[in-house]
Amino acid sequence: MKQPDMEKLIAEELLGKALNDEERRQLEDWLNADPANREQYARICAGRFSATRYDTYRQLDADKAFRGFLKKTRRTSRLKTTMWAVAACLIPLLLIGSTIWLSFRQQPSAQPVAAIAPGTTHAVLQTAEGDSVVLDKAMLAQAVVPLGNGVLHTTPQGIVMPQADDTDASPAANGTTPQNILRTADNGEFLITLEDGTTVHLNYNTTLRYPEHFAAEERMVYLEGEAYFEVAPDAQRPFKVMTRDVTIRQYGTSFNVNTFSKRYTDVVLVEGSISVLTGDEEYRLRPNERMRLDKTSARLSIRPVDVKPYIAWHEGRFIFDNESLGDIMETLSHWYGVDVVFDEPTLRDLHFTGNMSRYDSLTPLLRSICQTVGLRIVIKNRTIYIYQ
């Protein structure tokens, strides 16, 4: 049965009409089709929804109800009495109609959906020579991946670039540095081992530009998005990470760089030592410190932090430490490839603390958040609706 027909059927039942056998069967079929329907019907009968919208009157056969009322009204009644009776008749119509209208239309009905899977290993590599290859799990299952005139060695999580030997007359040694470009999209992550042994773990929606062979005096890469670096030691050649806002320089260390936010760039040092350059200024970080650059004011701050929430994604976890629901849902929308709709903008400002697996399906994760902050979350196709 179509939704408008079901609304009308329920309205007539609540108004006291005796349903015939066919109508009763249709109602029972609808109730049994989905547990959410039965729950919705119970809420309607309990009158949990506010009845404040006159538009709902259109959903009812008010003319028919009014004619029934007139049959019970004596023709000799005075006009004033009749008008009050009409109002008394219409009020329950509006109450019932708005209850049903809001129940059916204010919130999308939950639909049985397949589990929404988390992101997976997936990236696209474009070489300096113009070759391009999609690197997904199927491709990485091969021991090597042919690319141009050579091959890439693979791991279950990514690729290993060929190491340069001492006799290699690389392009970098000749003064040019052709760049490879590695990109992940929503729902993707990737691990690459560069030719010097440095490993870079790319989060979703991240771009890394790097040379096939590093220059003799320094190792430089360019980053947009978020990545975790474990830099191979080399006292003679500092490793530099360039972003739009800052440059990070180190010789051998582990750190996380996040440029996702429109408001700031974060650099968190896990171990070792790094310096952060912005403009003409250079700042040193010690382990368990975070550098935050405000992108609007260009102000930079450094403070001690617990690094676990910042690098949890790299270790396969989500750790939310009193984070706003808006920021949390932004993260989940990218990792799970879904859209998020808040019923009220103020819901974005609610805060949540939790620690959960990044590789679980989305539904149990949302259920945990929902129960903690007291919200109703409805999943329809690949859109998440959030209600008070």
Specify the number of helices. 9
Q: What name does the CATH topology of the largest domain carry?
A: Jelly Rolls
Compute the CA-based radius of gyration. 31 Å
- Helix content bin: 25-40%
Quaternary organisation of the protein chains: single chain
Using the alpha-carbon principal axes, give the shape. elongated
How far is the N terminus from the C terminus? 29 Å
Q: In terms of structural class, how would the helical and strand content be classed?
A: alpha+beta
Low-confidence stretches: 47-63, 82-87
If classified by CATH, what would the architecture of the largest domain be?
Sandwich
- In total, the number of domains comes to 3
User: Main β-sheet, in a few words?
Assistant: 19 strands, mixed
Q: What is the tally of beta strands? A: 24
Strand content: 25-35%
Could you report the average pLDDT, rounded to the nearest whole number? 81
**CATH class descriptor of the largest domain:** Mainly Beta
Note the topology.
Blueprint: H1 3-14, H2 21-33, H3 35-46, H4 62-71, H5 79-105, E1 120-126, E2 132-136, H6 137-140, E3 144-147, E4 150-155, E5 158-160, E6 179-183, E7 188-193, E8 199-202, E9 207-211, E10 219-224, E11 226-230, E12 239-242, E13 247-250, E14 254-258, E15 264-271, E16 274-278, E17 281-285, E18 289-294, E19 300-304, H7 308-311, E20 317-324, H8 325-336, E21 339-342, E22 351-357, H9 362-373, E23 376-380, E24 383-387
Parallel strand pairs: 1-7, 5-7, 10-12, 21-24
Antiparallel strand pairs: 1-2, 1-6, 3-4, 4-5, 6-9, 7-8, 8-11, 9-10, 11-14, 12-13, 13-16, 14-15, 15-18, 16-17, 18-19, 20-22, 23-24
Helix pairs in contact: 1-5, 2-3, 4-5
